[in-house]
Each structure stands twice: as structure tokens, then as C-alpha cells.
Amino acid sequence: MKKENNKETERYNFRAVEEQWRAYWDEIDLYRTGDDPEKENIYILDFFPYPSGAGLSVGHCRNYIPTCVSSRFHRMRGFNVLHPMGWDAFGLPAENYAIDHGIHPRESSAEFSATYRRQMKLIACSYDWSREFSSTDPDYYRWTQWFFLLLYKRGLAYRALSSQWWCPECQTILANEQVENGRCWRCDSEVVTKELEQWHLRITQYADRLLDDLELIDWPEAIKKIQSNWIGRSEGLEVSFVLQSEDGAQADALRVFTTRPDTLYGATFLALAPEHPQAAAIAAPEYTNEIKAFIERARNTGERARSAESREMAGRFTGRYAVHPLTGEAVPIWIADYVLPGYGTGAIMAVPAHDDRDYAFAMVHNLPIVEVVRSQDTPIDGCYTGQGILANSGPYSGLESQAGGEQMAAVLVDRGLADWKINYKIRDWLISRQRYWGAPIPMIHCAKCGIVPVPESDLPLLLPDTMDFAPTGNGRSPLARIDEWVNTTCPECGGPAKRETDTMDGFACSSWYFLRFASPHYDEGPFEPQAVHDWLPVDTYVGGAEHAVMHLLYARFWTKVLYDAGLIDFVEPFSRLLNQGVLHSGVDGRRMSKSKGNVVTPDEVVAAHGTDALRLYILFLGPFDADVVWEDRGIKGISRFLDRFWRLTAGPKKEVPAPGAGVAAFERRRQQVIKQVTEDMIRYRYNTALAALMEYLNYLNKVAKVEISDGEWRRAMETLTLLLSPMAPFITEEVWQNVLGYPDSVHRQPWPEYDEAKAKATVVTIVVQVNGRVRDRVQAEAGASEESLRELALDSTAVRHSLAEKRISRIIIVPDRLVNIVI
Ligand code: ANZ
Ligand code: ZN
């Protein structure tokens, strides 16, 4: 390839080279996934992006550029690299945009992903584009539907009537984890509850494994913590409190769940969730009306909002009592809205002295507070939630609380009044959506046969083509309006039947896409078993920390189901997870986002400074996982570095009589920079890798080239160029081919090797003589230049003393051994 060279200019002109190299790399298919059986495989993956109309900002580049650098680095290091890209394109943004613009979501999705692809190519992301797909392709969602059937067959998908979050803005049901503080995760509107028949996936059945297997993976501790809190495994005791009956007849019992049996003697009231099945019935006749009204009100407040600490503690007395299982005393029963219906038994024994929420409730409603655990060191006023010594606890008083609690539990278990229990906070994953732009759930409702799955051979069940896809707010999917589509025949009895009209939550699509990339065109199954065996699990998975629970939990769940079905041989999809830090705007200091109007686009930066400058600046801003601020002027410093690199490698040879370097030190410096950059690259520490290269460049600018042979000098230039190439692919290609004159791409060269021993500075002892007599011994780096040895010798106090004022006629230097000063 003949290229125009701008060696003569003092400044690097990115405009002259970028387009040509981009085309050249496409031509040589540089990013094709490696398939050399001799090489090790590595799979480097970005989170499945959800293309939006706004396109990419430089904030997104903090994800895509580092994974690109890592992929380029590993290709040079001799790995087969799988680094693919595709689109998570079902969902509301594309659909809402389509509604606003009167186009089909198919078109809006295609437009959005085309923009992403163009921008990713612009910033030279090294994806193997031959593997690209979109979750909205029938060839893809065919298998998403296949997964649904697999889950159904394994008893992990079920339909149930339940009260669910409804977002009035998005007009759809949301899963628990998609609601934050009573607001929709996507549009931030306040959600309400709605009773609907919904499809759920039984992720709760995998709760223990999802928790235990966190140990197997190299993920940020913070993310693991969020997941384990979300799963919320809790071991405790379920205790029966028998209801007091007026006539002394055999009565029902209330079951409560507690993690603190040691506090049993401090239980001064019981509290039921308003939704508790016994809540209404339990009330004494004169309390019934008030209790019913209270329950009605409480139901309309959401679960997570009700457990929020700042809430007022609403509750009502039921007029009834239960018998304390250890003391036999009467304990009043309340309905309280801080007790959640879906957790434990939905009923608690309240211990105001030792539980914060119970304490707050007791203060508001004037209920007794009995202290039963004393802190061993400092007496505490108010509520004490720690362990200690039991008091006011009958025969158990004086015991250490943990041991005392175990004894009380044993007695109750013995009498058949209690059982040890494990509870989880996690709920089944609600997967139904009443929106058009999703994968249809492949189920059929038959009046005779009930729910019947669509036969696998009929997949994909295509989303009907319609322009009438806007939701009407009646809680039903727009698909329900398309009679020709809804009406079908039952696969079992052949009679008339109706299709399920809900579509799947978009998170279904992203729960398995990482498997598809291993064999994206395979059509006999969701993936080719051998390809998945060869490439998965994903070695390094990179994306934002905001996906700690939803996507990352669902994908782990589906992977385990596949494993149980014998379809894959690993239990965790992502061996190592990295979260890039957030990019804040330099203008307002806030997270860069379209809605805040503070976005800088890669397009504008590339136009002004070039792709290499954008890439280096993104990498140089700070540690990969740190939150950093984009400053427009920062990038100018990067451009100056590129100019310096250009002048050093391409510019005319400077004959600077600068202080010389010993040949060995020169080589050691080269070894050191290879070592540092290699280690930094492995750890995603691109900012320090780049700093090391900047320092090396400064060093090379200083050493006099006269002492260094042309061969050694060229080797240093090559090393610098190779080490910089994954980060700045254009300028290094230009230097490699058009300055250093190699015929092949720099990106196809092996990564420079280093030798630990050679990279280490060894210290040697130099004998210093004056007129042949030993005057001192000094330490110097092996290979130090003659110049520096002379300075060291003349600096010695002993030498200066014996020299006095005498004139030096000659200095004889034997490198690494001796300096003899002749006077
Ligand atoms: C008595 C007690 C005394 C409690 C004490 C705590 C401290 P985790 O760890 O989250 O499982 N609880 C049980 N079911 C509840 C529900 N449906 N809604 C709200 N709170 C509920 O917490 C278990 C503890 O949370 C249980 O132990 C119970 O309060 C409360 F000094 O029982 B405890
Ligand atoms: Zn039927």
C-alpha cells in the first residue's frame, strides 16, 4: 500500500492518515477472531449496549476503548481473541422514539445501532464485526424464545396472578429490581401496584447457588455485596404464638420469623403485614372496620417504600392477643405497615428494646419496651441491637445472649412451637411486559388444554408487523389488539386457542447473548456447543456498576439453568468483571448524559484532535475504575505527546551532545518499559502504562544518539511504537510502516518480550583510584555511562581530599569496574 508520508512536518497530521489506515485494517480483516489451535483463547466482552437515539458520548468510550486496548494487546501477545459487539435493541427507548416519530421501532432500532456502529468504528474499536447481531433479529430472538421454553419445561417459568409494579409512564409492569425508591428505573416516574396475571421465572430456586458461587468469580467486592444483599439469605427461627381465645377453646397460631430468638422475652407485641392472610380476620369485632380501612390504605404503598427507614410508622391495634410461648403472657397483636408481606411469614414478634424499627413503632404508639440484652461494655440508652448478656429473661437471665437464644430455640423446637428456617429477600423474576417491542412469549392459551407451549419447530414466533403498537393504558399488550395474530390453534388438541400477548422483558435478551457470540450464525441451536466450550466463560467482562443486580444476576441464573440442563460445562458466565468509572462533565461536574445536556461526542473530539488523541486522553484521565472529569484542555497535552512521538521517530536525526548513556543502561531502560507496560496492560492500568511511555519518550529525547548504535536506536524506536500501538493505533501504524519501513501492520507484530533479570538494575562496586592508588569504592548501576562514572568518582569526598587543588590530566574508565584519575 502506497501512502503519503508527512515526515517533513514537525507536527503529526492525523488527518492525513486516519481514513487510509481504517480502510487498510478492514481490508486485511485485522480484528477477525483468532482460530489458531496453537494459541490460547481469550474472550473480552463489553456489556450488551442498548443503543439510544443520542449515540455515544465520550463517557461511553471509557468502557469501549479499554476493552479495545486489551483486545489489541492480547492479539499481539499471541492469543486468539474474541471481541464482539451487538445490540440489545428491544425495549422502550426505541419504541417510544418510534411512536414520537411515526416510524416502526424496527427502523428506530436500526438507526440507533447504525450510529453506535459508525462511532465505534470511528474510535477504532477492534470488534470482529462479522459476529454482530441484534437481539431483535428473528434469528436471535428465536433462541430467546427457545430459552423461555427450556425454563418452562424445567418448571422454572410460571404464570401467576400477583400484585405488581406498574409504571404509568412506560405503561408496563416492572420487576422488583427495576423499581428504585418507588420509581421506575427507566423513566423515574412514580410506580403504582396493579393486579395482573404475569409470567415469572423462578430465580428464587437458584438463590443459594447464586450466593455461594460468588466465591468462584473475580468481581469487584462492591458488586458481590450488592448481589448478596439482594439475594438476602437469612437464617432464623419461625415461632408459633397461639392466639388467645375468649372461651379457652383450641385456637389458631400466628407464625413469626425472627433472627434473634435470644430476644424472645423482650417481645412486647406482635405485628402483621397489612397483606397478611389473617390480618382482617384476626381483628376483634369492634376493631374490624378500622383495621379493614387501614389495610386498604397500606396496600397502596409499595414494599420498598414501606421498609424505608424514614417512613412514619403506621399501625393499628387489632384488639386481640396471643400467648407468649415461653412466658405464657398475653401479647397484643398489631397490624403495622413496616412489616412486609413477602418476607418471612409476614408477621413478626416486635422487640422494641433491640430492633430499631420496632423501637420507632413502640415510641409512636406508646408500647412497652423491655430490655433483655445488656451490652457487655457500655450501657446504652434507647435501642441496643448488638449481642450481650441476657436480662429479664426468666431462667435464661445472665447467659450470653447467643447461647441463651439457642437454648430458648431448642426448647421451642422440642415442644413443636418453632422451626429453624432460611429466608430470602429475592423474589422471582417477573418477565412479562405489556409492550410491543419485545420477543413474544411463546405460549398459547387453550380453553381445553390450558397453557400450551408453542412447539420449538414453530420458532421464531414472529412479532407481528403493525404500526398500531402504542400502548393504550388498559394494562394489556398492544399485541392483544391483533386478532389475526392472537387467534391460533392449540398445538395439542387442534382446537381454537389464543396466543399469549405479553412480550419478554428486555433483560431476557441480554441473559444469554454472550453465548451467541461464540457462534453467531449457528442455526441448529442457540449456540454451537464446541464453540461455547472453546470460548466461554467470558474472561473479562466490562461495563458500568449500575448493573449490579439486574442483568448480572439474570445472566448468572440462566447460565446455571443451562448447566443443569447439561448444555454447558461451566456455572458462571463471567470469570472476571470490571467496572469502569463514571465520566463527569468538566462544565457542570455532573455525569455526562444527554438529559443533562452536557455531552461531548467522540465525533467532535475526533474531528478536532484525531482518534489517537481521544483514545489516549480517555486512558490517561485516571485509573480505569475511577470517576474522572473531562477537560477539553487536557486533550491538547495528549496531542503534544503525539507530536513529540512523531518528531522523535520520524523527524530528522538530532545530534545533541547531551549526557551519554551506557549501552547496557540504554538496553535496561528498554527492558524496564516493556515490563511496566506489559504488567499495566494486564491489569487495565492504562493511565500508568501511558505515563511510562511518556517518560520513556523523554528519556530517548535526552540520550545522545552518538553513543548508541543505529541498530540499538532503531530497536528502541520499534519498542516504543509497539508498546504504544494498542492505545494509539493510527500514529503507530504510520510510524511502523512509513517511517520504520515495515511492510506489515504494526498490530500484527508480536508484543515485545522482556527479561526480568535484564530489567532489573544491578549495582556494581566501582574502585576509584588517584594515580593508581585506591582512594574509595562507590556503588553504581551496572552499565552506567562513562560520564556518570566520572561524576560519581569526582564526587567522592576521599577523592576530592586527595586531589586537593591539583590539575587532572587524564581519567581512565573501565566500565562497571574502575575509575583512575591521573594528576
Ligand atoms: C425479633 C427481633 C429482635 C428481630 C431483634 C431483630 C432484632 P433479616 O436479617 O433481614 O432476615 N422481620 C421478619 N420478618 C419481617 C417482615 N416480613 N417485615 C419486616 N421485618 C421482618 O431480618 C429478620 C428480622 O427482621 C427478624 O428478626 C424480624 O425482627 C424482622 F432484636 O425478630 B426480628
Ligand atoms: Zn388445547
Would you mind describing this structure in some detail?
- The protein has 823 residues and is α+β, with helices and mostly antiparallel strands.
- Helix 3 packs across helix 4, helix 18 (611-620) packs across helix 19 (634-650) and helix 19 packs across helix 21.
- 35% of the residues lie in helices and 19% in strands.
- Strands 8, 9, 10, 11, 12, 13 and 16 form a seven-stranded mixed beta sheet that branches.
- A hairpin with a 4-residue loop joins strand 3 (157-167) and strand 4.
- Mean pLDDT is 89; it is low at 1-5 and 656-660.
- Residues 234, 236, 257-260, 263, 273, 339-340, 343-344, 346, 348-349, 351, 354-355, 385, 423 line the site of ligand ANZ.
Search tags:
binds zinc ion, 4-stranded parallel beta sheet, binds ligand ANZ, alpha+beta, 823 residues, 26 helices, 31 strands
Structural class: alpha+beta
Shape: globular
Distance between the termini: 62 Å
Residues in helices, as a percent range: 25-40%
Count up the helices. Answer: 26
**Cofactors and ligands present?**
ligand ANZ, zinc ion
Oligomer state of the chains in this structure:
single chain
Q: What is the strand content? A: 15-25%
Radius of gyration: 35 Å
The chain-level mean pLDDT equals 89
Largest sheet: 7 strands, mixed
Any low-confidence stretches, pLDDT <50, length ≥5? 1-5, 656-660
Question: Quick recap of the structure?
Answer:
By secondary structure, the protein is α+β, with helices and mostly antiparallel strands. Strands 8, 9, 10, 11, 12, 13 and 16 form a seven-stranded mixed β-sheet that branches.
